[in-house]
């Protein structure tokens, strides 16, 4: 009886904790629908690698930085430059609330990330992408994903 209870509780925890993680292929489909494949020279696998290294596909991830700014959402978009978190000064170049970057439909995150990518530095603006994705074969990120 105790073992069954433990298994049940563990299953519930997995469901609660996994609620904000998007499936890799579901993300690929969403990104494909938003025309990011080839955007500014970056492939769909680049975008998937970026989402993985920044948030591990966690839509609701928020991370505090040493400068007091925060990174939001699946692409870990910074509040100092790109969105307004109403906690500190922000340039708010994407003209949005940072909370919008936590929305499961991901449109705000994708549109803001496209704005970042279209600026100086492209995806090199993300340190983790530079360290783990840049110059590496990334086609495996699409394995098993059917976009059509």
UniProtKB/TrEMBL annotation:
Recorded GO MF terms: lysozyme activity
Signal peptide range in chain numbering: 1-18
Assigned GO CC terms: acrosomal vesicle; sperm flagellum
Coiled coil: none
Alphabetically ordered keywords of this record: Disulfide bond, Signal
GO biological process, one term: fusion of sperm to egg plasma membrane involved in single fertilization
Occurrences of domain Glycosyl hydrolases family 22 (GH22) (ranges): 94-112
PANTHER family: LYSOZYME C (PTHR11407), LYSOZYME-LIKE PROTEIN 6 (PTHR11407:SF9)
Family: Belongs to the glycosyl hydrolase 22 family.
Protein name: Lyzl6 protein
UniProt organism field: Phodopus roborovskii
